[in-house]
Amino acid sequence: MKLLKDIIYGVRIEEVKGNTNIAVESISFDSREINNLSLFVAVKGFNQNGHHFISSAEERGACAIICETLPHKLKENITYIKVSDSSESLGIIASNFYDNPSEKLKIVGITGTNGKTTCATLLYDLYRLMGYKTGLISTVNIKILHKTIPSTHTTPDAIRINELLNKMVENGCTHVFMEVSSHALDQRRVSGISFDIGVFTNISRDHMDYHPSLDHYIGSKKKLFESLKKDSFAIINKDDSYGFEMGREIVAKSLFYGINESGNFKGKVIENNISGLSIEIDGYEMTSRLIGEFNAYNLLAVYAVTRTLGQDPLTILTILSNLKAPEGRFEYVISPSKITAIIDYAHTPDALENILKTLVSLKKGSEKIITVFGCGGDRDNGKRPLMGEISAIYSQHVLVTSDNPRSENPKKIIEEICKGISPSKKNKVTIIEDRRRAIKAACEMASSGDIILIAGKGHEKYQIIGNEKIHFDDLEETIEIFKKTQE
Asked: Which has more confidence, 219 or 98?
């Protein structure tokens, strides 16, 4: 329980109606969770405007309401606080309510289109193996020490983030590694979080169903670096064309990493094959179980963070060389007949192209690359033809199928993917709407030495069709098919 006047400290307040010297037991932006000792924050969200639910919060007995527009009629015994930005205020309030846990932790926030999960997970594992008590907030899962909590969003809401950080403090964590999505930054979900390091991996097309333009998407990512304090660090991929923009006009110290460009941390790929990478970082050579140049960048980013936090380079590289990629990131299984199937979350044009280019470079002869993928429904439809085009350029066979169609007609999604495939490459393409059947067909089509890429879902263990969430696991399905071919 906290006093209202204490939990609104630091909020940009425009007007107060009522008493701020009152007790608050809980905070929420969902009116259904309100009781007579609750503070309700009316947030203007992407789908819902919390101001429409102020009357509901009043009826449920809210003791205080934060909003950008005051109701026409104010209720007695309720404190109303008008603010300039409810979303930003929620982050600050949540932080204050949980005693500002981010100030008691070393927090590394990672943003970019691709690589966030891999970097965050590698950092969590690396610090855990170096003997630190660590926390992880990622797309795949949330971890507090060794306890795993399922994840529903890349970055949770502001209240949940601070609740988790507070639990991490209570459990003795010293370091936390967090993915920070463009949605979270645009919606101010990390407002009030004190980041010690912000990491920029790369920018390519994604979430254009949410962001009105690429400039808006880039601007959302940059908010992480604009929020950094003077004694914080921005660690930026210098090889990415938007790297300079991320470091421009920020107060934090910018450090750069790259393979093509010289920077504070320099990497060089020596060898890349199906068993892993050999990479030189700052003059030290290491091998990794991770595959592909895109993972060389991830390893370099992890090294840059860890060195910036003061760790010894040989210790970092020794432990890093034994770490594996997170679940659903270039996860592979080999059949008895030596067919390799790779499960990867690649769901953007850039990610799909990166992984297919890597597979092409790993080929030793006439092996075929067979790609199975679809695109999610109710999401950016502009990337669909781009991914169709990319798949046909780098693969010998493409099976276009369903991903998570959600409320969209799967046939329509598949048609939009196929629009990007040139007439000369249409003969490579097979359309199988049912994802299970598509994976099975790819396995039956493959011969010894061939590589099957099953892209788009990675770690996800479900498929969303309409309003129904059905159990479906790409890796599980593939293993089962390989077993049956062995029998």
From this structure: 98
Give whole-number Cα distances, 103 to 99, 174, 223, in Å: 9, 11, 19
> Whole-number mean pLDDT of the chain?
93
Q: What is the identity of the amino acid at 192?
A: G
Per-residue model confidence (pLDDT) at position 95: 97
The whole-angstrom separation of Cα 422 and Cα 420 is 6
Give the Cα separation of 80 and 61 in Å (integer): 13
**What is the model's pLDDT at position 205?**
52
Express each pLDDT in 69-116 by its tens digit: 999 999 999 999 999 999 999 999 999 999 999 999 999 999 998 999
Q: How confident is the model at residue 216 (pLDDT cuts 50, 70, 90)?
A: confident
CA dihedral 236→238→244→247, nearest 10 degrees, is 20
Q: What percent of the chain has pLDDT above 90?
A: 82
Cβ atoms of 478 and 454 closer than 8 Å: yes
User: Is pLDDT above 80 for 39?
Assistant: yes
Contacting residues for 151 by C-beta, under 8 A, at least 6 apart:
137, 138, 139, 140, 141, 142
Q: By C-alpha distance, which of 297, 248, 254 is closest to 272?
A: 297
Q: What is the 3-state secondary structure (H, E, C) of the chain?
A: CEEHHHHCCCCCEEEEECCCCCEECEEECCHHHCCCCEEEECCECCCCEHHHHHHHHHHCCCCEEEECCCCCCCCCCCEEEEECCHHHHHHHHHHHHCCCHHHHCEEEEEECCCCHHHHHHHHHHHHHHCCCCEEEECCCEEEECCEEEECCCCCCCHHHHHHHHHHHHHCCCCEEEEECCHHHHHCCCCCCCCCCEEEECCCCCCCCCCCCCHHHHHHHHHHHHHCCCCCCEEEEECCCCCHHHHHCCCCCEEEEEECCCCCCEEEEEEEEECCEEEEEECCEEEEECCCCHHHHHHHHHHHHHHHHCCCCHHHHHHHHCCCCCCCCCCEEEECCCCCEEEEECCCCHHHHHHHHHHHHHHCCCCCCEEEEECCCCCCCCCHHHHHHHHHHHHCCEEEECCCCCECCCHHHHHHHHHCCCCHHHHHHEEECCCHHHHHHHHHHHCCCCCEEEEECCCCCCEEEECCEEEECCHHHHHHHHHHHHHC
Q: Which residue has the higher pLDDT, 329 or 478?
A: 478
